[in-house]
Design a protein that fits this description.
Order of helices and strands of chain B: HHHHHHHHHHHHH
Shape of chain B: elongated
Shape of chain A: elongated
Largest interface: A-B, 18 and 19 residues
Strand content of chain A: 5-15%
Radius of gyration of chain B: 28 Å
Number of domains of chain B: 2
CATH architecture of the largest domain in chain B: Alpha Horseshoe
Structural class of chain B: mainly alpha
Number of strands of chain B: 0
CATH superfamily of the largest domain in chain B: Tetratricopeptide repeat domain
Strand order of the largest sheet of chain A: 1-2
Largest sheet of chain A: 2 strands, antiparallel
Structural class of chain A: mainly alpha
Strand content of chain B: under 5%
Number of helices of chain B: 13
Order of helices and strands of chain A: HHHEEH
CATH class of the largest domain in chain B: Mainly Alpha
Oligomer: heterodimer
Helix content of chain A: 40-55%
CATH topology of the largest domain in chain B: Serine Threonine Protein Phosphatase 5, Tetratricopeptide repeat
Distance between the termini of chain B: 47 Å
Helix content of chain B: over 70%
């Protein structure tokens, strides 16, 4: 049996050695770090209060964090502003999960329905 | 037991098993079985084409090209398929080595050279898709916030942006009039933030609109060419 297997199994090619490059230290840019820190603070202190109500995936704060980290303070903040302007009640035409929001007297704008309810009533 | 089955199974059984897996929609296991069959029958080019078809269906053009490179008879079908795979993978420079006919016009279309592409394809009667200028979109947004997005076909975004910028500006102005400077600065900052984001976003939105129009146009032509 072992002989049979040894005959039939194709010889395994040697695995090439993987060269791991040392990660270069990222340049410290104060404005970029301040922006990232403020987003992180928002995520820790405020974002959790409203729960999972994001239309987009990833959420705008995560998107902004990644954009600033990748494209720098200037372009990242522009991309974040653009993303915030695209998250609104009319965005249901191109956003798969859509939370319906409404004005509640004394409480301001609140999320009224979860996506599954919205889809059910359509 | 499984090992024993693997040893006992004849190539034709492997092929039958692969066909069954493919019918059941288990594409990746079907590919594995087809590859196992190829191990016993290295000359079976039809099976290679089957694997290529399955990889193409899954959008794995790189894997399909790797399999195509092992095809034995490099005939016209081979050239057509390789050209098609490189075209789909977006590696247009490599397509020229395989395609020599009018299909090369598709590459010009992908690169935005509509007139040349349509001429090569022999479709002079067709008019190129009407594109919009991203710079115009950005300028429109600079003049009236949100107008650039409406120009790009996103009316909802445009109205929402206009309302956002107008309200933040109004709050900044009213705070300033009441001599509440911290509030005025905060809202003025927000207004500038959204205004700059709108100009940038309009430029991107028009680019996205252009890409969408281009893709639709090319898809229509691909339907006639392939």
């Amino acid at each position: 049996m072992i002989f049979l297997l040894a005959v039939m199994v194709k010889p395994v090619e040697p695995v090439p050695s993987i060269h791991i490059e040392k990660k270069e230290m990222k340049e410290f840019i104060p404005l970029k770090e301040i922006e990232k820190l403020s987003i992180r603070l928002y995520q820790i202190l405020l974002s959790g209060q409203q729960g999972d109500v994001c239309n987009f995936e990833p959420s705008c704060s995560h998107f902004a964090f990644m954009a600033i980290d990748t494209y720098g303070a200037f372009w990242g903040i522009l991309m974040a502003a653009d993303r915030l302007e695209r998250c609104h009640p009319f965005s249901f035409s191109y956003v798969p999960t859509y939370y319906r929001a409404g004005f509640v007297p004394g409480r301001g704008i609140k999320i009224l329905e979860k996506p599954e309810d919205v889809w059910r009533f359509r | 037991m499984i090992l024993l089955l693997a040893v006992v199974m004849q190539p034709k059984d492997i092929l039958r098993f692969a066909h069954t897996l493919e019918k059941e929609g288990d594409t990746y296991r079907a590919i594995t079985e087809y590859k196992r069959f190829l191990y016993y029958n290295p000359d079976a080019d039809s099976i290679r084409y089957r694997i290529v078809y399955l990889y193409t269906r899954e959008g794995l053009y790189g894997n399909a090209i790797d399999v195509m490179r092992t095809v034995i008879s490099k005939d016209s079908l081979y050239k057509e398929t390789m050209g098609f795979l490189f075209y789909r993978a977006g590696m247009y420079d490599s397509v020229y080595a395989y395609w020599k006919d009018k299909k090369l016009g598709l590459i010009d279309l992908q690169e935005g050279k509509f007139k040349e592409g349509l001429k090569k394809l022999g479709m002079k009667n067709l008019s190129p898709p009407s594109m919009k200028s991203p710079v115009t979109g950005a300028l429109l947004s600079a003049i009236v916030p949100g107008l650039g997005r409406i120009y790009a076909g996103r009316v909802g975004d445009g109205i929402y942006t206009l309302l956002t910028i107008a309200s933040t500006s109004y709050f900044a102005y009213s705070f300033y009039r009441e001599n509440k400077k911290p509030g005025a600065y905060i809202f003025a900052g927000l207004s500038i933030f959204f205004y700059a984001g709108d100009i940038f976003g309009s430029y991107i939105a028009v680019n996205m609109y252009n890409n969408m129009v281009k893709e639709k146009f090319i898809q229509g032509i691909e339907g006639e060419v392939f």
